[in-house]
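Final report, closing paragraph on structural work. Over the funding period we assembled a curated collection of sequence-structure pairs, and we close with a single example.
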Amino acid sequence: MIFQLNERQEKIINIVKKNQPITSEAIASELNLTRATLRPDLAILTMSGILDARPKVGYFYTGKSSLSYISEKIKSIKVSEVISVPIVVDEATSLYDAIVLMFLEDVGSIYVTNKGFLSGVVSRKDFLKSALGGMDLNKVPIGMIMTRMPNIIYVEAEDSILTAAIKLIDHEIDSLPVVDENSEEEKNYKVIGRITKTTITRLFVELGKNE
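Its predicted structure, as stored:
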């Protein structure tokens, strides 16, 4: 939940700052309101982490703002919660077939596997360079032009969505493969999903709309 504090909630915070710990009865008295009237505001401020409530003691100000709550919320969302289906082909797939698949699926990158494990990634820019370079798209396999491991930036399902967003920005790429490490074979990864800039944007919009 992302929210804008109202005037009464701001007053409650200021009262708590000056008088902490302070009971709900005392806060209500300061505002000339009933405890029942304040209950929703106190619940919002407590759930957001701005105030802390201790039984038989009262309310404390935590020092957190609504912006810090937003930051913590984003950090708490795992990649696995917003993962989407990856588009994957084998290294032997021709450039032509891969390009057709890319446009049919409307994606910016295709992940390439070898024996079921991530071995490369190809972007629209890579395909464009190949076409302009005069390659025979029907005969050249995608494995010839892909960026290979270990030069692929990826995330794992348990990483935070913030980690994914930082990698997308720092490396100036459109998507990240979400991988699961095969414990039996070191440094072999199975592609289980993808995270894109669109994923991040959609999440931002949903949070902004209080969804």
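The chain has a mean pLDDT of 86. The beta strands are 51-54, 58-61, 88-90, 109-114, 117-123, 147-148, 155-156, 175-181, 189-196. We thank the funder for supporting this effort.
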